[in-house]
Amino acid sequence: MTRQDPRRPQPCAEQLSHAALDQEAEEVTLAVMAASRLLIAISARALSFTDGTLTLPQLRALVVLDTCGPVKLAALAATLGVNPSTALRMVERLESVGLIDRRTNPRNRREVILSLPPAGRALVKRVLTHRRTEIRTLVQQLPAAARAGLVPALKALTEVADEMAVDPFDEMRLVGGLVDDPLNPPPPGVPKGGRRRSKDRTT
Fold it and tell me: Alpha helix locations (H) across 141-186?
């Protein structure tokens, strides 16, 4: 049996506790990253099943427009985290296949307003419905105990992430990109740029 050198400092209980917490946090981080990759793969499959010609970034642009309504091009670029020229190329591609409506704001001829035509909204709905169905099928295969434990864990993670999460609607407001559709004004009592849709529109 090896004897410990009494002159060597021994780790205290607090150090051991921190090390255990760090190890646990690393394991949880890796598990969440793996789940994230799974969800991205499910989104890619849902998009491929619905429309194999589009990419995930293009789908995200459509989802942002579906969530936020008419927006300016610069605001869409900021929300997607790309430069305006990249966003413009994406918009031109989606407009060419009838999934985005791009027009000049009649109230300000220098502004380009982006919105979704019915075909764009229908595509977003089909993709998200397909993704939801696949995730539901996956979840139903979990043992009951695992499902029960997953719900509070995911809710807790979402609550902790609230301050870091970026809601497309809030991001649009931040960059001043939300605009009311000049050809479809909001009903009385709705604030400007205030026609918010469901938050269950993410990719």
Answer: 144-160, 168-174
165: which DSSP letter?
-
CA separation for the pair 175, 171 (Å, rounded): 6
Q: How distant is the alpha carbon of residue 94 from its chain centre?
A: 19
Lowest mean pLDDT across 104-108, 135-139, 148-152: 104-108
Whole-Å CA distances, 115 to 64, 66, 103: 10, 8, 9
Instruction: State residue 180 phi and psi, 5-degree precision.
Output: -75, 140
Amino acid at 132: R
pLDDT 10s digits, 145-176: 888 888 888 888 888 776 555 555 565 555 55
Host H or E run for residue 111 = strand 108-115
Supply the DSSP string of 46-110, one letter for each residue.
HHHHH-TT--HHHHHHHHHHHHH-SEEHHHHHHHHTS-HHHHHHHHHHHHHTTS-EEEEETTEEE
Question: Residue 65 has which token pair?
Answer: 């427009």
Widest pairwise Cα distance in the chain: 86
Instruction: Classify the C-alpha dihedral 192-117-63-134 as positive or negative.
Output: positive
Q: Which of 175, 174, 172 is nearest to 69 (CA)?
A: 172
Return the ∠ at Cα 202 (arms to 196 and 203), rounded to 5°: 150
